[in-house]
Specification:
With 385 residues, the protein is α/β, with parallel strands linked by helices. Helix content is 22%, strand content 14%. The protein is globular and about 55 Å long. Pathway: Protein modification; protein glycosylation.
Amino acid sequence: MDPNKAPMAAPRDPAPTPPHPLHPPPTPALLPALPLPEQPLSVTSLPVPDESQLPLPVLVLACDRSSVRRCLDSLLRYRPSATRFPILVSQDCQHPETAAAISSYGDAITRLHPPPHPDPLPVPPEHRKFAGYYKIARHYRWALGHVFNTLHFRAALPLLRSDPSLWCASAWHDNGKERLVDPSRPELLYRTDFFPGLGWLLTSELWAELEPKWPPAFWDDWMRQPEQRRDRACVRPEVSRTVTFGRKGVSHGQFYEQHLRYMLLNRRFVPFTNIDMAYLHRERYDTEWERQLREAQPGELRDLTEINGKTGLNGDSTGSKAAIRIHYHNRESFRAAAKALGIMDDMKAGVPRAAYKGVVTVVFNGRRVYLAPGNGWGGYDPAWG
């Protein structure tokens, strides 16, 4: 079998009813036959036609952590083709232990060498304590510019190409704690207005748009501003396909103890190339998304204490009939509901994490919950945070 081609799905009997457009059915006839027991730690897979077998590089940014070995070992373990998925590692710090760790991989990776930087780094006096964020933004700008402008790679995935309302695909679910997702459905993908980061895919055209105005610091929050997002969405998974490890970093462990350490990492292979991704196109997706919200049972925050999973996703009552819709009306009521659910309650430019059209969906005690705006959808209010 050609390792660069996905295995063909076995023939299936016709289904009596069409599959749910936003929740495509799993492929029980296919998954058990696949020899890979675990899922690569990579960006969310999307279908690539045979005629477009272009290189899709995996860019790893490193600084002063020799534990980058964990990341590189996982990538090398799971990537199906060195030609299709070259691994590029850019180290921005003069840290001997990390440099030695990267060099030990030899020809298995390509090492990028950022040029020397002016010292000291130009940081506004009021941001001196945030100097690390300025270094990260500078590193991202150089590394992405080098990949797209010097190495001429093109991240040409059909879904991003065919739908201008999408601008990235991410491997990360901001609310992807083990108890908040359906681990039996790793094939589920969603649209989100919140830029996830932490393992994401962009096209060279998008980089050409962003590079001239790349910020000196806090690049990810800058990406979440309306001026950059421009009402475009990202694709994100139900179950995260990448995780962050270790508490140490420029964020000083912010969110780690409460959220990040509990994220579930998918380890099941999903044949995305055999799944029709057309359901993620905006018009079709929005129609189904709105229907699911209408059919979800209206409830109140106090109802969360009565959800015990007996009518959960895997019980007799499945799908939208088992779902509950809880409304929020302002920033305070959203945060109260987020706290009750155990999801992240912060917002960026008014957009909650993992939200789409103001709605955040998770699984709570085995039951699908939609946290939705109660006054109709009128867009995000940046004043909310």
